[in-house]
Input
Amino acid sequence: MSNIRGFASDNNSGVHPDILKAISEVNEGHVVGYGDDRYTAEAIEKFREVFGPDVEVLFVYNGTGANVTSIQALTRPFNAVICSDLSHIYVDECGAPEKLAGCKLLPVHASDAKLTVENIKQHIHGFGFEHHSQPKMVSITQVTEVGTVYTIDEIKAIADFVHSHGMYLHVDGARISNAAVALGCSFKEMTFDAGVDVLSFGGTKNGLMFGEAVVFANEKLAENVKYIRKQTTQLHSKMRYIAAQFKALLTDDLWKKNASHANKMAQILAEKVSGIPEIEITQKVEANGVFCIVPEKLIKPLQDEYFFYFWDEFRNEVRWMTSFDTTEEDVNGFVELIKKLLK
Amino acid sequence: MSNIRGFASDNNSGVHPDILKAISEVNEGHVVGYGDDRYTAEAIEKFREVFGPDVEVLFVYNGTGANVTSIQALTRPFNAVICSDLSHIYVDECGAPEKLAGCKLLPVHASDAKLTVENIKQHIHGFGFEHHSQPKMVSITQVTEVGTVYTIDEIKAIADFVHSHGMYLHVDGARISNAAVALGCSFKEMTFDAGVDVLSFGGTKNGLMFGEAVVFANEKLAENVKYIRKQTTQLHSKMRYIAAQFKALLTDDLWKKNASHANKMAQILAEKVSGIPEIEITQKVEANGVFCIVPEKLIKPLQDEYFFYFWDEFRNEVRWMTSFDTTEEDVNGFVELIKKLLK
Amino acid sequence: MSNIRGFASDNNSGVHPDILKAISEVNEGHVVGYGDDRYTAEAIEKFREVFGPDVEVLFVYNGTGANVTSIQALTRPFNAVICSDLSHIYVDECGAPEKLAGCKLLPVHASDAKLTVENIKQHIHGFGFEHHSQPKMVSITQVTEVGTVYTIDEIKAIADFVHSHGMYLHVDGARISNAAVALGCSFKEMTFDAGVDVLSFGGTKNGLMFGEAVVFANEKLAENVKYIRKQTTQLHSKMRYIAAQFKALLTDDLWKKNASHANKMAQILAEKVSGIPEIEITQKVEANGVFCIVPEKLIKPLQDEYFFYFWDEFRNEVRWMTSFDTTEEDVNGFVELIKKLLK
Amino acid sequence: MSNIRGFASDNNSGVHPDILKAISEVNEGHVVGYGDDRYTAEAIEKFREVFGPDVEVLFVYNGTGANVTSIQALTRPFNAVICSDLSHIYVDECGAPEKLAGCKLLPVHASDAKLTVENIKQHIHGFGFEHHSQPKMVSITQVTEVGTVYTIDEIKAIADFVHSHGMYLHVDGARISNAAVALGCSFKEMTFDAGVDVLSFGGTKNGLMFGEAVVFANEKLAENVKYIRKQTTQLHSKMRYIAAQFKALLTDDLWKKNASHANKMAQILAEKVSGIPEIEITQKVEANGVFCIVPEKLIKPLQDEYFFYFWDEFRNEVRWMTSFDTTEEDVNGFVELIKKLLK
Output
């Protein structure tokens, strides 16, 4: 029985062969646990090459772990975090941010899931008023949950605004590689150069087996985070296996090859379906996701052959994600099937 | 540069080759994330073969995650959990149980780290008295943190006592394979047959790369645990890679081979050092750990060649852990070095 | 220096003389602390006369305490509570519900701050989906934060809907006496007869010095609440002083006299300002609050003589609350001042 | 039916008449809620007269509220608080400190319930080691839960030690007035002059109806505490009624009169029973509590006439507390009954 590649999620894909190889290569002998080993040091060094020498890097297991570790590091329970009402931290973490950080999340509605200085402002009040959770962090997702991408200028504008209110800017970068490719910029330009304070750097959706990184702009912001990671259950003992994956991802631009490919597959898919009048693309296709409204009768038969998820069941909006291992044949086969079903 | 095998911890070891192979074998195509895939189903089926058809199994990332998921599943924040004052949940999880479950941990002191009906009783009072955290769970560690092993009868006695007070019995089984080998019994006899309600089943310390399992005696006890796992940040997206490891571990008795070997290495080490008058073994060597007081002058030079940890610095007590990959040459070399240093 | 009565809040008022008298009358000798005394038993008995024999009643300090105790009693941290985005639990408790219950609050926007089956439905999904906080409670405020009142039928409709999804209905009744007066019904008809599961029964805003009550429809719902109240820091030692106040409030319809008077004052105020063309009343005046948009130039001089709060500073909307001790002279003086300032 | 004065607890007593009077005197007109009123300002001013001009003062409802507010202000969830295993925060708050602060409490055993540099040291390790909750606060109770009193020098020694490790010293002063009387010193000498960082200042056990104060040594320590108080459900709306009580307590030495009387009654009681050979006094009688082992046959009949609590049921140790309203007749009657029962 083989596992068909579908368009459900980039985390439905497997592990990139180079990553598997990197894992095997560190599988020798004993090294000290919990990150006090040379592989972890090397991986952190790679991050410093990419993000600048001042960043602090901690590896964790998954995106939720990275996000709640970031939030706890820079907030207290009486704080509020402003985020999109479509964001992963708001919708897809079963309340982990609220429970673990104790904070209130203040949702912002925007159809493209992008925060702006303008739409953030609705929550910028009540400072010093003890009855209100005190806004302390803005969290944006890059690439957003609907496949859109913030420009560097958009991030800078938010960062400046946020800092002018004594707040911090967090980026949930579960798909940050796809964003960097989309913008044609470096990670650093898009994040710390633009004023980001802390970044959840995604690995799993770009070919890793497990592992994300929490990256702080500087040491001071990361002051207590090692305790927070541990108390949040996100400290791995055999750390070399996360470290080796990240080192490989940041070596020879593997991150970029993977993300470029995924983005390209989404572009092709979007292009092909944009010519089908029964299908309405609902979001700009800027990274590796295609969101569109499709005739209801297509959905079940399509899912049977290429699994994917509803985005908004009420209006037959679906989400098609591409991945580092999506092939052009996958896309062609999928589009052919759509056309066949539409006849 | 090669990584010397030391005696620091069984989690300083790498990944068993059969586990790595199992990982590679599932690395094809796409499967649905978060455990809704056939590999996870197969791994759970393996657990049911081993533990009985009624158990509920959830995979998590690590031991702290397994423990706090277990505790949250069967307690409320106004409850208390009784445990050894040497236990991992009490000493080594940076307060994760208190923060995530909201519970009080009630410590019991025993030099062999083993709870008994007798020493538990000190905390069995105040039921119905709202000023006191209500005892609801007893948590034992098998193998204990000092290398001792509960007999089946000891576990049964605790389980009976605990249940007679409307409480639950949790086992932190980070090294449960070593215990099963030590007792020469099945996992089932030692746990659910003996009255255990929930088990943190350890994988990482017995040759896995990452992954532990939370195993409940029955479905009812596990009622809400899938939400708890998610909110605790312990739900992995690419679940097949944890599942494949556990399936391999429970296939062809790999767990037993690994644990038997580790235990045997500890026995050999203990035997050899027991003949050295300057060394005092401080705990029964029942599994894969040797605890002993050694002359201070040995410690640093020994650690330089074979890394290990202090257990009690004040009295020069050290902990030597063996692993599935410890060789008899490692043990011999270590003992020779001790003898050489003592001359 | 005397304290001018303003229109800021019903909690700016003092304590009703009958309540002060009731306090003095229990101030003799020793009684057991924490509610195990005859005064507390008598007060609970009064609640059972009013709400029916099955209710469970616990006294707490304040409204936030009553609300978070209610939420914790009927939810787990992976649950969500649906509420108005103008509600006290959402806006005015500095994140206490999120931190103490660990839950997510799901906001509903409605300009009159009233939930309906229709506007609740947007959050009724994702049951069984572990990535989403599981909706378990709907919380409505009666009287709402903008002075509107749910009819009994509206409450029944919500309760039926909520129960059909295995959820609970909570009422934040900080001003429930004003609502009962407005509807001309008993407390019981409006709450437990209509399907409410738990009620925060307000005292402080209706003439008490301190103290609110948490009232559960039945014993089963209140199973663990005494521990929750204690752990939430809401258990008073000298309980007789809260109990005596509530007994007095529920004796000889003191609650009704106070609330009727406050409501009547709001009616008079609304009637008088409704004739002033420069002022736009923005919400139905159904209880003891008048919300209106006033010319900006009036606000500061008015506040200097009769303190009150902005409701929405951006559009010069203000909130005028009346209280059991507001006099017709206060209202007349206030309206005269408005008219004078408008000239 | 009259309420016999017993020896159960100082919180079984009523409210001192001067306190009731002070409450009545502020019961006029409207004042702004939540502490922004002149009565609260006056009460805080009184505190600054007593404790020095730099202290920050916040009023809360009760002792548990004061303690968990103090802990949250100066710790993060990954911290640990060292305390006596007989302390109120450890034993009598149903896990509120663990749940609300998220911290671990590290218990110290001492038969007189007093911490010392020596017995604290067992927990002073693991700094910087992320697996361990990081010790950040020592909490002592003055008067202790067994009626003993720390000398100023003892407090200074602990404070110096604590500060030398970058930690804070908290005093649970539920009975701090009794301690000040016992030592014949001012509040200031015993607390902030001695190096205390934050104090839970008790009112309820010394004649108040409700209300405790959290007092910080300086503004910096209190930086975020107003949000913490609110989120902890401890902010009262009609604050003037707590403020008026505290102002009265600190005026004309009412606190001292009440505490002196209570202490004296305990001295008399202790003196009288010390002559009874069947009774063994188990703790130094330094404040307003007498702890002793009494013949089992006495306990039930004594309790029937003068209620009190067991301290240690296993050895028939009981606790007799005196209060501001205990009379010499009460003591004499009680002792006579003992003697009669012993015949």
Remarks:
- The two ends of chain D are 30 Å apart (CA to CA).
- Chain D has a mean pLDDT of 97.
- Chain D has two domains: 17-249, 254-342.
